[in-house]
Amino acid sequence: MDFDIPPQPHGRGIREIRALVAAAPVPDDVRWLADECFTAIATCEGEIHGIDPAEVHLHEVGAVDAILDVVGSIWGFHQLGVTDSYTGRVALGDGTVRAAHGVLPVPAPATLKLLEGIAVKPGPDGAGELVTPTGAALLRVLTRGRSISSYVPLRSGFGAGTKDFPDRANVLRLVLAERTETPAAGVRELVLLTADVDDMTAEHLAAAADGLRTAGALDVILAPIVMKKGRAGTRIELLCDPADADSFETRILTDTTSIGVRRTAVRRRALPRETIDVDVLGHSISVKLVTRPDGSRTGKPEHDQVVRVAQATGTPVTAIFRAAEQAAERAIRARV
């Protein structure tokens, strides 16, 4: 597909790019992921230059063709119905590349930062730049890491670049496939909602988190972060079923002072667990039993109940906790 792009400014800020993406007639999922890509690029550039991401001026990445690359790639995956993406070890290329800031080593600083946590390899020799910041951002947002061990190919396609190499084809391969391996027990596809705030009191944040848990969120955590201008803030992370994501997103924007929520598809593996009751000094205490991957079982007494029994019996909390653990261990052995 070719685009006829009129003359344009060289680069844009993240706010302008977000406005262009927001105005695009694309599905919401495509818009969210595209926004996540450009946010990741701006964040990495901001860290490298020591400035706020909102102040970053994206040169090559802010051009219309790069915006079309990101939105078009994500939209293509959406049209194909792709739910999970994987990639092999990423070849970085070698040499140098000329950018708005001058000649840079391959991979460029922003590219390398975006690829943190992804398996890469240098070369091949004489290849030049093989991964741009745009491509690295797409890998970071769309892929789940290395290719799965086995799959059934359904369709495949190749895209050729304009650069010619003397000893290899300059093509990108995409394979649409179905997994053949059985997912691990307890694995669920979930949604992670993230929002940052720096103007709520600890009491109000705790109340908002409790309200989200009561509403059925699978998990809610509050983590300290440093926001722009060095201000202390809090990151709210909420885990929920995909069907509940919209309602929780609305609730976060209603119950907190945050003006934006990021949405990410995640996969969670939870170990099998059950709750049993054990007797300690004539009082009942609930113990959560967890089955580990090797088949062994561990138990943890409910702390609030341990404290209650300790207060009722005048016994140290540590002694009640250990007695409940031992009672659970006896219950586990009795089942074997």
Summarize the topology.
Layout (H helix, E strand, L loop, with lengths): L11 E2 H10 L4 H22 L7 E2 L5 H17 L9 E2 L4 E4 L2 E4 L3 H6 L5 E2 L11 H10 L8 E10 L10 E9 L7 E11 L4 H13 L4 E8 L5 E9 L4 H11 L6 E8 L3 E8 L2 E9 L5 E5 L1 H11 L3 H19 L1
Parallel strand pairs: 3-6
Antiparallel strand pairs: 1-2, 4-5, 7-8, 9-11, 9-12, 10-11, 13-14, 14-15
Helix pairs in contact: 1-2, 2-3, 2-5, 3-5, 8-9
How would you explain this protein's 3D organization?
- A four-stranded antiparallel beta sheet has the order 10-11-9-12.
- The chain starts with 11 loop residues before the first strand and ends with a helix.
- With 336 residues, it is an alpha+beta fold.
- A hairpin with a 5-residue loop joins strand 14 and strand 15 (297-301).
- The protein contains nine helices and 15 strands.
- The protein is 35% helix and 28% strand.
- The protein folds into three domains: 12-147, no CATH class; 190-269, Transcriptional regulatory protein pf0864 domain like (Alpha-Beta Plaits, 2-Layer Sandwich); 273-335, Roll (Ubiquitin-like (UB roll)).
- The mean pLDDT is 86.
Q: Keywords, please?
A:
globular, 3 domains, four-stranded antiparallel β-sheet, alpha+beta, Ubiquitin-like (UB roll), three-stranded antiparallel β-sheet, Alpha-Beta Plaits, 336 residues
